Amino acid sequence: MKRYQALAADIAASIRNGTLKPGDKLPSVRRASASRHLSPATVFQAYYLLEAKGLIRARDRSGYYVAHGAKALPPEPETASKPDGEARPVVISELVVRILESAMTRDVVPLGSAFPSPLLFPFERLGRATAVAMSQLDPWSTVSELAPGSHALRQQIALRYLVDGIHIRPEHIVVTNGAMEALNLCLSAVCKPGDAVLVESPCFYACLQALERFGLHAVEVATDPRDGIDLDALEAAIARHRPAACWLMTNYQNPLGSAMSEAKKHALAALVARHRLPLIEDDVYGELYFDNRRPTPTKGFDGDGWVMHCSSFSKTLAPGYRVGWTSPGRFLKQVTYQKLTTSLATSMPGQLGIARYLERGSFERHLRGLRLSLRKNRDEYIDAIGRHFPAGTKVSRPSGGYFLWLELPGAVDALALHDKAMAAGISIAPGPMFSASRGFGACIRVNYGHPLTARVEAALRTIGKTAIRLAA
Amino acid sequence: MKRYQALAADIAASIRNGTLKPGDKLPSVRRASASRHLSPATVFQAYYLLEAKGLIRARDRSGYYVAHGAKALPPEPETASKPDGEARPVVISELVVRILESAMTRDVVPLGSAFPSPLLFPFERLGRATAVAMSQLDPWSTVSELAPGSHALRQQIALRYLVDGIHIRPEHIVVTNGAMEALNLCLSAVCKPGDAVLVESPCFYACLQALERFGLHAVEVATDPRDGIDLDALEAAIARHRPAACWLMTNYQNPLGSAMSEAKKHALAALVARHRLPLIEDDVYGELYFDNRRPTPTKGFDGDGWVMHCSSFSKTLAPGYRVGWTSPGRFLKQVTYQKLTTSLATSMPGQLGIARYLERGSFERHLRGLRLSLRKNRDEYIDAIGRHFPAGTKVSRPSGGYFLWLELPGAVDALALHDKAMAAGISIAPGPMFSASRGFGACIRVNYGHPLTARVEAALRTIGKTAIRLAA
């Protein structure tokens, strides 16, 4: 964060906690510059930013004042979901397809998108790495490195596990066509049609779509918007439904943004081992943390191989390359077989390009920049939502990833809000997409993976206004 | 084919049809050179090649004679298979995995492999095309070109259809992670667990593996080693089993090498339309023809969209890139949905590299060379099998692709032969891999996608000797 941004954040916080009240005059640029030991230009930039956000207003020849519309930050959602605990077949595809299709043109403001801005990724460097890797391709490797994937890439993935203190050998990793394929392979390796699968409430719609395709039943389990699934509820659901698997996102869950503590993950690993329950751990956002270090996934506490850890480079490095992986523990053989018979192998140029890029060691630097961008976006989006959304709107405070979860007040119907937003050229992801029982009718997921431009700010204002009308 | 090879083939044909008999003296190099208008060096090379193949023998200071071991070419298998017509759940995975795994090291002579030599493909040019394509990547395309795939690539695929007289718009093509994924997506788009699917007898084991994974029942239909599935038997099976789909390879079928005539394909297209039966047409070998032109697939006669045509670049251009596609006719929407929820998208570097390569126009030249290499291999392998295998062995005469289908005489057990071959470091593909009812116990598939080196010749000799022992 630059100095002027830090100053602006500081002043914004004072406005929100009431130290500065609407109508209060801000110190002059000159005085602020002296007292804060900053250049006048820096102070001016900060004021300019606060003005652009609508928090302060300039009066001619008189200076800056706290704006009357400046509001406190919206509160966080605090209570865990309360699903009914039933197992049910999933019928979600029509709703999800309708919503995803409506958002698939570039003209739409992508607040409902599942992808961050592609401009955040080092495509040039990756392209050069791919070019070099392909110029050195051993033709025989196209035959010998089929199902488990490129050995060079699996070594790099094993190294990253090792940095996080997790010992996984390259031979225990299967490279896949993105995390989506990894999750599907794990699911089909351990489930047969009619089986029950435990999922979060709410959970990622692609999980529900996979359950629907395989003819599996979803059991939604209570989940807290801050620290994830409720372990007592999980254990009760295991006892009641004898599920074939459990599918969770333990870090920066999509859509909640929740993150389980390490203690909780430790307990979760012990719990699934005790019940001999395969845990499919979707960890695609783990690298996008805003705190000090990568949160250890449940896989890090997995002694007996019940955790099938899935991740990818699609959200961290190389969108479109479709390179993911799984480390499926005791189900390695079954998952490898599923991979062989589903798609045989993962595309070599993508695998080798990423392996080469990782070998060159610039991944960490790129990740640092990516995390800073996303954290900045998060703060600005929460600010903007506070300015534009109806009073009583609750907004999550994710410590990683790029999704906000909003609980709207009153009787706002998220599906109706979606339709009105689309009519204005804006996509949002309405809550019922994330639930087999079509819950969360007053919730939406907002993607903050794109910078808060004037266009995005205007889109948030439009949605906020529409929500205010719908709430009335 | 070079001149000396043509001369050698000519003489070999005379030996086999009896014009030249064992013990006959060949014309001297000088005389042959004069009468054929070839250089003495060319004639000598031809004689040397025939000697290496064991067809002629040099006597000191006397010249070349037809060898006593020189045999007629082995006969072709002629009768169609006679499966029992029952629908049965498929249990094949263990057998197939055991056989594929045993052959997965580079040390093994890959006669049982499903892949041709990787040295037949233009990896350098492809690598350069990929490098250029990735240097021009539009980051936004990684979001907007998800499920159906790169538009540039789909245009190139549509163009190739057009060259063959088939009108398919780019919008009706879904790019997949190889043909394997295309076939799986088509299957899951039109079938649900417990449905019956009609397949050839024998059929490609990956088809059986897919049926097993989806819980589908296989109905094997009589198939002729020359011209493919029996349409009367197919229609009878439709009436009896009310199948959800039919999965066929109409060109150079794996493992038989059979090819359906265009008239038969025309009738097939009409038949499936009449019965409103989805036909999954696996056409990965269609470009590897040895005659004058690409055989039209059934898709070319598909008026009502019942044919789901699947193919890939893996056998023709870019092994390891895992880029295939399907043109699924009336099931476009369902297949696109399956793709979105199975693996979301196909890897961009592979797609864009191939699109760029195709745009540059060197594909046809590469294909011509590839077809010539494979045709030469076919002739040499049939020759060698004639020399080394037990009398009564029947060998198919495929007019494309790279597989021979062998019916062994007597009570040869192909699985036992496989085990003995593996012990000698040679893989073969035993017949029971290709049948849900474990038929074809005396048949094997031989891959001729690798040049007939001394090592391969020795391997064929070893297998032939073992078969002779097992037949006794």
TrEMBL record, chains A, B:
Keyword Transferase: yes
PROSITE patterns the record matches: HTH_GNTR (PS50949)
Flavoprotein in keyword set: no
InterPro entries the UniProt entry points to: Aminotransferase_I/II_large, HTH_trans_reg/aminotransferase, PyrdxlP-dep_Trfase, PyrdxlP-dep_Trfase_major, PyrdxlP-dep_Trfase_small, Tscrpt_reg_HTH_GntR, WH-like_DNA-bd_sf, WH_DNA-bd_sf
SUPFAM superfamilies: PLP-dependent transferases (SSF53383), Winged helix' DNA-binding domain (SSF46785)
An example Gene Ontology molecular-function term: pyridoxal phosphate binding
Database matches in CDD domains: AAT_like, WHTH_GntR
Keywords: Aminotransferase, DNA-binding, Pyridoxal phosphate, Transcription, Transcription regulation, Transferase
Domain HTH gntR-type, residue spans: 1-69
Family: In the C-terminal section; belongs to the class-I pyridoxal-phosphate-dependent aminotransferase family.
Protein name, entry field: PLP-dependent aminotransferase family protein
Organism whose genome encodes this protein: Thermomonas aquatica
